């Protein structure tokens, strides 16, 4: 036994799907690379996203996973819910480890997709140095940050990605500072492709992963992934929560190819006429007892982001 | 006040009593409850400390270094990978002679991910210049944390102290806890070399081969002095609060033919094994090693020794077993047990004693071991 | 020493029940420890917690392999976990169930904790709270006293319905 490696389960050949032919969920491949036996919480959206990411990536892919809920979701040795190679690595190290792996596979002449699947903490906090280094170096990989806006693995402490006002176990009175703008940090590295996505729009996510993997160089996708125990809403509201994030303009779906911004379908309408922010806030226990001042600040942030991105897309900078 | 609490909550309560100026910490299982409880205290206004929610453990220790040098009492808590990630700063804190107190909830190291108890994390920081104490009960977690501030801040020491408690088995167990009205047990923080614009100094500049070793020797001199300071502080603590501690906790050792040496919760469970063995006519005793740095002098002359190591130094052996051998000249029976939370009961410990082979090493649960 | 093993699913309150029980025993003037066994599992997975009660300080930290009492907060666990494993010959089982379960021999008691919780409207995030009513049942079984149970519950929860639920379970359990 070399390390506690788990033998790869037999992989089934994947049907060749042309990205553009996928117009509805039923066209997404039936092959599963993440089995249903995960140990995720009921209503977990990040594990759902991982399922679609792997469907888009197919079997010639390796996942690099830092410490996060995804470390747990895989299951306990000797069992596993994963049907692609998964390389678990220390919390701060995912992007650097993926750099090494990507170079090694290239040296071997392989075209295997190297995909980091990391939480927000492992991305915006402890992992940001490795992330920045890999993007600056031009590592050929896809870095996906699934953002449940806190440290889920350790029981919901604040992260740099926790929004203003949200209660976590280390911000019991609500977080006093704003969410770190990860996308603008990544954007500053001028990657060939970056996008935002949301678990409530799996087809959009699927297409973005497909497109990202068709491009050479460092790619980035930032997925908003609502989390029932962390955000404190009933498990069956997971899809609704993601949709509300987009409809209120709190979370804007877009792609940026070689710097050029394109707002994605679901967000286009939302940005013209956003649903009231209250709709998104009121169903979440983490925003209970939000003061009117904080709420106002949140609303201003949302409006500001909508304006900034609309102006950019329209070319009025 | 008498209550019931987990090991983690006991540490947090002691920190509250010690009232540090700055706390900087990062969550990690199974330490998280300490950080969360402190965040609650601060939010509720029960604790006036400034709490810095850093983005990594490297930054947690770096922030403590800045704060401690800045002139206030500081505290942090971590575990396992967190401790390893701060390693550079762990050395720095001791080299800079800063009396930082850190709780380390002992946990195994990856890969594979394992959140259960093991001592390898703390031992990997063995040569950093930190004092290290290992506790065995919830009450002791509280008492040792309080005393750690006093020992660290003593001018004869001025070195950081790490209080170690076993992940889950102690961090998450509920036992009785008596909290103290500490009065003037902890004097106000005074760091002779704190930052002071009236007396401008440069800290840690380039230091050449002709001087560097002097600073290293100075750390060792303080380590040696620390034995006396620890004894003084433990004596004063016993007088004030009625609970006494020493470098080891000895149980039925006076007339023992064979002594079990273990650390943390296994050291407590060993006492139960000793009672069983005594019932069978085996004159056993238990010596729970509390202080690991500075390493105490042990009186084991004329006894057989069984050492349980919840750690391992690959290519060498159990860290405690080898420390005992080099300190006492005794060839112990070295048992490697409890790694990554492996279940070890008092019956197992009694078996280790019954089946001992002095001078040999065995890995509990590994059947093909020769 | 009296050793109790509690089986539940993550999120059902087995860990809190263990803590409450230890606290109640402590308020009875006994020594007690409560210790959950944490797997790497999330909500819904089977979990066990251990409680020891004694007149002397307790030095044991290992798991309970031969319990005097097994508590099952969710009987659906019995399909996947052998809850009776190691139970002492004169041991007792307490089930959260409105009916006795076939195949559970020896001293086997049951009480409908879920029903009691629902009657008191003790529901959090869609799940009934079982950890406070179970304490009432344990008081009826003389493992702790009812006044200490009430004290312990009030120390941990502000909501008086928890005390009422414990009292209801005390009344309902047949011994
Ligand atoms: C160096 C280090 N520090 C702390 C931890 C503990 N830890 C593991 S996962 C995690 C939080 C992960 O949060 P995030 O990246 O947002 O992923 P999520 O758990 O929310 O999926 C923490 C603090 C660790 N494993 N290593
Ligand atoms: S804590 Fe949140 S992100 Fe983590 S497994 Fe549970 S639902 Fe998913
Ligand atoms: Mg997260």
Number of helices of chain A: 12
Major sheet description of chain B: 7 strands, mixed
Instruction: Classify the secondary structure makeup of chain A into a structural class.
Output: alpha/beta
Which architecture name of the largest domain in chain B does CATH use? 3-Layer(aba) Sandwich
Distance between the termini of chain B: 52 Å
Determine the structural class of chain B based on helices, strands and strand pairing: alpha/beta
> How many beta strands in the DSSP annotation of chain A?
8
Query: What would the principal axes of the Cα set say about the shape of chain B?
Result: globular
Greatest interface (CB-CB under 8 A), with counts per chain: A-B, 24 and 20 residues
In DSSP terms (H or I, runs of 4 or more residues), the helix count of chain B works out at 11
Q: What is the CATH class of the largest domain in chain B?
A: Alpha Beta
Number of domains of chain A: 1
CATH architecture classification of chain A: 3-Layer(aba) Sandwich
Q: Termini separation of chain A (Å)?
A: 58 Å
Strand content of chain B: 15-25%
What's the helix-strand series of chain B? Answer: EHEHEHEHHEHEHEEHEEHEEEHEHE
Mean pLDDT of chain A: 92
| Beta-strand share of residues of chain A | 5-15%
Bound molecules: thiamine diphosphate, iron/sulfur cluster, magnesium ion
Task: Describe this structure as you would to a colleague.
The complex is a heterotrimer of chains A (317), B (370) and C (175). Chain A has 12 helices and 8 strands. With 317 residues, chain A is an alpha/beta fold. An 8-stranded mixed beta sheet of chain A has the order 2-1-3-4-6-5-7-8, with helices on both faces. In chain A, helix 2 (69-73) links the parallel strand 1 and strand 2 (86-88). Chain B has 370 residues and is α/β, with parallel strands linked by helices. In chain B, strand 6 (131-134), helix 7 (138-153) and strand 7 form a beta-alpha-beta unit. The longest helix of chain B is centred in the middle third of the chain and has 30 residues, at 212-241. The model of chain B has no long low-confidence stretch (mean pLDDT 97). In chain C, helix 1 (14-27) packs across helix 4 and helix 3 (133-140) runs parallel beside helix 5 (161-172). In chain C, the strands form 2 sheets. In chain C, strands 2-3-1-4-5-6 form a 6-stranded mixed beta sheet, covered by helices on one side. A two-stranded antiparallel ribbon of chain C has the order 7-8. Chain C has a single domain (2-172), classed as Pyruvate-ferredoxin Oxidoreductase, domain 3 (3-Layer(aba) Sandwich). Helices cover 30% and strands 24% of the residues of chain C. Chain A binds chain B through residues 3-4, 67, 71, 77, 88, 90-92, 125-126, 128, 151, 153-155, 157-158, 160, 169-173, and chain B through 26-29, 32, 35-36, 39-40, 43-44, 53, 55-56, 81, 85, 110-113.
């Amino acid at each position: 036994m070399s390390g506690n490696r788990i033998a790869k389960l037999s992989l089934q050949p994947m049907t060749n799907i042309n990205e553009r032919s996928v117009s509805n969920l039923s066209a997404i491949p039936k092959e599963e690379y993440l089995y249903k036996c995960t140990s995720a919480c009921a209503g977990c959206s990040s594990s759902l996203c991982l399922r679609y990411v792997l469907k888009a990536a197919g079997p010639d892919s390796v996942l690099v996973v830092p410490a996060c809920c995804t470390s747990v979701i895989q299951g306990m040795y000797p069992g596993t819910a994963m049907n692609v190679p998964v390389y678990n690595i220390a919390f701060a190290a995912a992007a650097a480890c993926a750099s090494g792996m990507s170079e090694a596979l290239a040296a071997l002449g392989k075209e295997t997709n190297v995909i980091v699947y990391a939480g927000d903490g492992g991305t915006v906090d402890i992992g940001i140095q490795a992330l920045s280094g890999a993007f600056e170096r031009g590592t050929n990989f896809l870095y996906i940050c699934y953002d449940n806006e806190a440290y889920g693995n350790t029981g919901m402490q604040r992260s740099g990605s926790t929004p203003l006002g949200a209660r976590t176990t280390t911000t019991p009175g609500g977080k006093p500072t704003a969410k770190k703008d990860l996308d603008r940090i990544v954007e500053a590295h001028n990657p060939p492709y970056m996008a935002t996505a949301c678990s409530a729009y799996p087809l959009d996510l699927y297409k973005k992963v497909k497109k990202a993997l068709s491009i050479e160089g460092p790619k980035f996708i930032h997925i908003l992934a609502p989390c029932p125990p962390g955000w404190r809403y009933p498990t069956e509201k997971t899809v609704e929560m993601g949709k509300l994030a987009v409809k209120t303009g709190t979370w804007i779906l877009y792609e940026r190819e070689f710097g050029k911004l394109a707002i994605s379908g679901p967000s286009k309408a939302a940005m013209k006429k956003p649903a009231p922010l209250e709709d998104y806030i009121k169903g979440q226990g983490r925003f209970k007892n939000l003061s009117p001042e904080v709420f106002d600040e949140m609303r201003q942030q949302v409006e500001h982001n909508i304006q900034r991105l609309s102006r950019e897309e329209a070319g009025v900078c | 006040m008498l209550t019931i609490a987990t090991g983690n909550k006991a540490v947090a309560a002691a920190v509250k009593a010690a009232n540090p100026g700055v706390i900087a910490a990062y969550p990690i299982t199974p330490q998280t409850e300490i950080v969360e409880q402190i965040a609650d205290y601060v939010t509720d206004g029960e604790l006036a400390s400034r709490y810095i929610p850093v983005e990594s453990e490297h930054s947690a220790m770096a922030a403590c270094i800045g704060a401690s040098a800045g002139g206030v009492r500081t505290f942090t808590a971590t575990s396992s990978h967190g401790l390893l990630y701060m390693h550079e700063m762990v050395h720095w804190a001791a080299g800079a002679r800063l009396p930082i107190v850190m709780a380390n909830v002992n946990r195994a190291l990856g890969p594979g991910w394992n959140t259960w108890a093991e001592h390898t994390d703390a031992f990997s920081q063995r040569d950093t210049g930190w004092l290290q104490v290992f506790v065995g009960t919830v009450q002791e977690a509280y008492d040792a944390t309080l005393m750690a501030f006093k020992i660290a801040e003593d001018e004869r020491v001025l070195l950081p102290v790490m209080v170690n408690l076993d992940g889950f088995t102690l961090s998450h167990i509920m036992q009785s806890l008596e909290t103290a009205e500490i009065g003037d047990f902890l004097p106000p923080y005074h760091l002779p070399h704190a930052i002071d614009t009236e007396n401008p100094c440069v800290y840690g500049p380039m230091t050449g081969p002709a001087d560097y070793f002097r600073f290293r020797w100075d750390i060792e001199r303080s380590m040696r002095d620390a034995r006396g300071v620890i004894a003084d502080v433990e004596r004063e603590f016993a007088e004030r609060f009625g609970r006494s501690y020493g470098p080891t906790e000895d149980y039925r050792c006076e007339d023992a033919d064979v002594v079990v040496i273990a650390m943390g919760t296994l050291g407590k469970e060993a006492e139960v094994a000793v009672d069983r063995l005594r019932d069978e006519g085996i004159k056993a005793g238990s010596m729970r090693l509390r202080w690991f740095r500075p390493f105490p002098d042990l009186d084991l002359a004329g006894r057989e020794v069984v050492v349980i190591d919840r750690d391992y130094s690959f290519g060498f052996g159990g860290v405690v077993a080898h420390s005992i051998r080099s300190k006492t000249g005794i060839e112990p029976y070295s048992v490697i047990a409890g790694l990554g939370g492996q279940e070890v009961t008092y019956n197992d410990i009694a078996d280790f004693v019954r089946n001992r082979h002095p001078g040999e090493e065995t890995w509990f649960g590994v059947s093909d071991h020769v | 020493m009296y050793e109790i093993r509690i089986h539940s699913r993550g999120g059902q309150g087995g860990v809190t029940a263990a803590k409450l029980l230890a606290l109640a025993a402590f308020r009875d003037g006994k020594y007690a420890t409560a210790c959950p066994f944490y797997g790497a599992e999330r909500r819904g997975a089977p979990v066990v917690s251990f409680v020891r009660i004694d007149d002397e300080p307790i030095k044991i930290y290992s798991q309970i392999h031969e319990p005097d009492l097994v508590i099952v907060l969710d009987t659906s666990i019995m399909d996947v976990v052998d809850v009776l494993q190691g139970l002492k010959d004169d041991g007792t089982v307490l089930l959260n169930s409105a009916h006795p379960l076939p195949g559970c021999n020896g001293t086997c008691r049951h009480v409908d904790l879920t029903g009691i919780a629902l009657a008191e409207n003790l529901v959090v995030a869609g799940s009934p709270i079982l950890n406070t009513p179970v304490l009432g049942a344990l008081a009826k079984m003389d493992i702790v006293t009812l006044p200490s149970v009430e004290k312990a519950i009030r120390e941990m929860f502000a909501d008086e319905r928890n005390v009422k639920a414990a009292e209801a379970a005390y009344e309902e359990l047949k011994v």
